[in-house]
Amino acid sequence: MLKSISSSSDLTVRDSTDRPTSLLHLSVTSVKPPAIMSLSKEKSHHHKGRYNGKVPTSNLGPFIGDFREFEAFSDAPTARASAPDGTYLSVQMVDTCQQINKPQHKTASYHTPNLVVRRGQEFLVRVTFNRPLAQSDDFQLEFLIGENPSGSRSSLVVVTFNSRLGGPWSGRIVESQGVTVTLGITPTPDAIVGKFRTYVAIVAGTGMQRTGRDAATDLYVLFNAWCKDDAVFLPNEAERNEYVLNDHGVMYQGSFDAVTTHDWVYGQFERGILDACIYILDASQMPISDRGNIIKVIRMGSAMINSKDDNGVCVGNWSDDYSMGRSPTSWTGSVQILLQYAKTGVPVCYAQCWVFAGVFNTFLRALGIPARTITNFFSAHDNNGDLTTAIIRLPDGSPDDSNTMDSIWNYHCWNEVFIRRADLPPGLGGWQVVDATPQETSDGYYRCGPASIIGIKEGLLCHPFDSGFVFAEVNSDVVFNKLDRYGTLTPYWVETDYIGKAVYTKSLGSNSPNNITQNYKYLKGSEEDNRTMARAEAYDIERHHSELPETTLSVIITVGQVNLGQDVNLQVDFHNPSDVPKTIQANLAGSVIFYTGVRASHLINHNFTITVPANQMKSAMVKITADEYMPYLGTQRCMHFVVTGQTEDESVSTIKVLHLQIPTLTVTLSGLPRVQHQMFANVTFTNPFNFALKACRLVMEGAGLMSEKTHLYGVIEPQASISWTESFNPRLEGKRCIVAVMDCSNLCQVRGVACVDITP
Fold this sequence. Notes:
Elements lengths: L11 E3 L5 E3 L10 H9 L28 E3 L18 E5 L2 H8 L9 E4 L4 E7 L9 E6 L11 E5 L9 E8 L2 E7 L7 E10 L3 E4 L8 E4 L14 H9 L2 E8 L2 E8 L7 H11 L10 H11 L9 E3 L18 H10 L3 E4 L1 H14 L4 E11 L6 E6 L13 E13 L10 E6 L5 E2 L2 E2 L1 E5 H6 L8 H9 L1 E7 L5 E7 L6 E5 L6 E3 L1 H4 L6 H12 L15 E5 L9 E9 L5 E12 L5 E14 L3 E9 L1 H8 L4 E9 L4 E9 L6 E6 L7 E8 L6 E10 L3 E11 L4 E8 L5 E11 L2 E12 L2
Parallel strand pairs: 5-13, 16-17, 19-25
Antiparallel strand pairs: 1-2, 3-12, 4-6, 6-10, 7-8, 7-11, 9-10, 11-12, 11-13, 14-15, 18-20, 18-27, 20-21, 21-24, 22-23, 25-26, 27-28, 29-30, 30-33, 31-32, 31-34, 34-35, 36-37, 37-40, 38-39, 38-41, 41-42
Helix pairs in contact: 4-6
């Protein structure tokens, strides 16, 4: 029952001298600042009453002295076993058998002094004791991960080698020769992934006597695509070699009809990268006990690769102002980005979609998760969650950028992972879309997926995670609307097969693109496609169903390949299949755009009239000279053209994206192509333009060959040439590539690559 306060004497507290003080007369000086500040200085007790301590979230801490070398039994002591000569058992050495384990676990490429194994597969450890084992000896291996390890959280794993019950990992004595015992340990297929500390403990009468902390015996446990019981099991060996073990890849950019190849150094085996990927999970404060769960690891990685809301790895920037960091086009791969983030804990500037995809791919493959990068050409970014990408035109046919909120990216890069989906109905496992580019939030964080590709193709959008968003990226309709003087929108033209024109990934064993569009959707207009669309609409993903005026006219824009600095010649073809001539009032609007479809600068707004005879086609030619477009380019190389044609009773539109081509760097390799033998990489370039290139940064790098090297050029004059040579000693055998990139203040992403087969 509530008591009313009738006077100030009814509401009192006691001050530091225990004298009553009326709350109605308290001033701010009554609150002592040290008492408030102590909340951040003293140990937090927020968990009190719920659990005994904070959830462990750190894997890479020093953990010095975290485990007692002698731990007394809490119950009755056990007699300590000794040999017939009275010598008590002790450990002399622990050998993690890297020469045997690494090849068997396919982890020899990791540049780390510690053992790296894959879960669900046996690895060997040799323990040398001070004497041969006696039948009465009892010992165990203990593997610890994170702070405050606990058997109940699977972060402290005990492995026994006799009839005594141990933890979930299995152990056996493989061989015993004199004082050396070879032990086989098999982590469970769902074991926590990360860096474990290793101890040998001997039953010593009143307790357990352990070996001391030895960082040399630490080992990394990864996901295992070779283990049938692991959630990442990938049955095809060629795919495992590509999607787990390949540390070099390509992504595809440009436009659908002018695809360019973008080499990327994943470098998941380079020094410090595995620790950097574990650090990302530590920085996210992901509980150690969750790090064996493939879906939780992937979703946390998707959120942490971008910095949008969690201080993650990469800062996205599409502004064309990169003065506070490096341009997204200047990176050769993921290695420097991840190392910088792990060293500083500060998000790295800057990234765009292919950088997010490349870094995320490195993170996934480093942890053993099969992953590949994907490019979706003409990717929809719809702001209101339906299947309509709205393009708004003014009454004269010119663009209305202020009211057009949706965008069509020339291309968008994301990732796929191959995993089992135990949380979904049968048949929805396999390749899943994941995306680290910050576009929309998912459960409160900027991340996307995993979304089942089979589910997307079938329109099963009720299942987690973010299937509807990905479905719209590849299936939206482009609806052209006319805005009248009263603000009324009237749709007049729909393109149903423009979005998701092609979905590419790297082919197995080569850099040629593999068109996997059929994995995402059926042939447009087919019975299966209609069924998928109907099913998607049943899950509240709305399509465009407005009645459109009947149209017989059609229009296309054709243009050949154009190099930067050449004139652009557009051919606009109007087709009139009717039996009467058509006079068309046409508008051609051209802009320089970012690859995201956002206009960087206006280029041309050309009105013209054309009469097309019955049952014929007629063309109009539009020329844009280099002198006209060059001042508007900046560092962009994409032009976007929209033609709108109107007769008295019909309206038509079409879109054309032109990606200007630029010269490449010439990269040559020389020297004996053998591991640890000196070789040389030479990069040359001649400026073919009639303008100087300024503030040029030239970078080269190769996974297993060379860490990132940088050379700066203040100015490269027209027709001037540069040449730069670096030496390197290959670390890894097999096919290896050096990637070079040059970024200037007025020209970006000049690239070159050279590959070589390195022998052992």
